[in-house]
Amino acid sequence: MNDRTPSRPRLSRRNLMKTSGLSGLGLALGPGLAACGRGFGGGDDSSGGEGEINMVWWGDAARAEVTEAALDIFTEETGIAVKTEYQDSGPYQDKLATRFAAGDEPDLMAQRMDSLREFADRGALLDLNTAGDAVDLSGLSESARALAEVDGAVYGVPAGLNAIGFIVNRDITDEHGIAIPDGDTWSWDDLAEFSASVTEATGGEVYGTGFEASTLANIIVWIRQQGEDFFTEDGRFGASEASVQAWFDMIQAMRDAGGFPPAGFFEQVGGGAEQSYIAAGTLASQIIPTNNFLSYSQAAGGNLALLRMPGETTGVRRGQSVDCPHLWSIASASEHQDEALRLLDFLANDPRASQATGTTRGVPPNSQIAEDLMGDLAEEDRTATEYLIGLQGEDLPPSFPYPPGGSAIADALAAIATEVEFGSMSSSEAAAAFVAQSQDALEQ
Amino acid sequence: MPAARERRGGRGPAAGRRRHRDRAGYLFLLPWFLGMLLVVIPFFASLYLAFTDYNLLNDPKWIGFENFREMFADPLYLQSLKVTFTYTFVSVPLSLAAALLVAMVLNRGVKGLPVYRAVFYLPSLLGASVAVVLLWREIFGREGIVNAFLGWFGVQGPSWTTDPDYALSMLIVLHVWTFGSPMVIFLAGLRQIPTMYYEAAAVDGASRWRQFRSITLPLLSPIIFFNLIQSLIASFQTFTQGFVMNNGSGGPANSTLFYNLYLYQQGFNQFHMGYASAMAWTLLIVIAVFTGLTFLSGKYWVHYDN
Questions:
Q1: Which residue of A has its CA nearest to B219?
Q2: Which residues of B touch A30 (CB under 8 A)?
Q3: Which tens digit of pLDDT belongs to each residue from A51-95?
Q4: How many helices (H) and strands (E) does chain B have?
């Protein structure tokens, strides 16, 4: 290697260093650049031809296929072309916000329940009351219609109805001769007893149950069973410290007894049924959204029981509610509102639309259509649909939409629940911190 | 100026050719200039937004320095600073040390050097990519190969990804692993150090360690300086690793809540784009301060041999 002669000409390093340092500094502004907003060069030319509407949702390829099938019927009949875009649920929300900010909002969109008011309160969504009778809502059950209502305005139609439910793998309980408690009347104590017996019978191979303490849907049921509202009607945080602490304590007691997995067990696995712990055989029971019952059943060996949440008959009042994965909402600034309204009505009220999509987004909100659809469904979907129809017929306390700032509460609970899990915070400290942070988040 | 113009704008065929050539030059610059607009406009927009309450959906409202005031009373903001500082001040020195060590080994004339160079460089191309972070998540998973390895020695490894005490250290290890790009630069720098210095030192009986301290380090100091600044800036801006590792939550228990991750959460999940813009500008100032300090300190330890 004789190219290391000292006489070799070279760059002036001093200058090289300085320029590169400064150019690196310029890169530091990267994140700020994303903040391009309305009035700052966001394009407002709505792409697409005359009468073409843009519809966006989240989901997988299977859901896309059945959705496109429904839209084909619509396009054939009305001549209105629909340009669709779909993606994963996480990035969906960020992209939707950005599109609104850029003045490039879709005409019809899947609107997540937890950010409904973020959009609706700011005038971004069309109030269906102002659209005359373009969309017929008379076929919807009371609980279905209430989901899209904010202060008397109606910001969409549920794309489907679901609830959360408890699934139990019967293969495991049968093998070890363990009786599954009565799913309509069981209590949280029954769950604790059941889960401990599964772990014991399997020699620790399988944990009796497991769910994330930080999933809002789970804790909301618990809080409602204590006679409190997680989110109150006037958009405040309504859970007491005592009830939140009891939630952490209840889970910790199951963990101590061995029925619930140890700290750090829940890793970031994909959201699908195939990657779930019940499919992997490490949990005997878990909580799922009921519209996914079929896919969980297929992934976990086809022998699942669907139970209600524990404590429904033993709490102060009922905790479960009829929910929906998302609404179909129309942008208030949409240039194709009439066409979007027609499509919305088609999705909500035309039996052919529901026949095409099945229950991929839950039970059709129109009760008549839901019942008519029953015969076409796979057994698991029928079970889930009966579960939902049952719930809708019952006298459940009303549930109120997530107020703006709700996502900060989800983040706060995730962090605090982890602290409790690893014992770096006591359950009472954690409850106090969570209530304080939640109230704070909603005041902003 | 007029004089210059006179000279350039002279008549005659040569001048015409030059004008023609100038036009071609500007034409070539045009894409850069247009691209620049895409940077400059949002740049100033975000500066304006930093002083507003802006929720993405309604028009921004001017609120002066409120966002900046709020920042320092926001425990999550302070947590994100802590995470980012810890990450930077631990992983940057470690990765530079690893880079220098490997560069020195490779510089001793290994057979098949290009292959090794490529192999060591590869992680730095991949390190920030989603696929590798996902892979890392599996490797450090509860039942991943790291814990399987520890199991051979009877050690029960922790849940690296879900335990708040370990999650950040796992990302630091990932960062150190991506030492390839400073390594390549070190290697280039090492090869510019004249061998005669080492030969002279060897004749005088200097040990390897002495040679390293008295020849390699001083002559390499401009390169170390360069790598240090590049790594500091990149590390302050870490986003992908944190985002992918815990699906954007910054968990477990905010232990991987990087500055830019929190900025993203504020801007796009919680609709506080004004606050997020203020955070971006504050980060710019933080990076400028640390870069400035590094430059000032350079007087004492960076040696230019010419």
A1: A13
A2: 237
A3: 799 999 998 888 899 999 999 999 999 999 999 999 887 788 889
A4: 15, 2
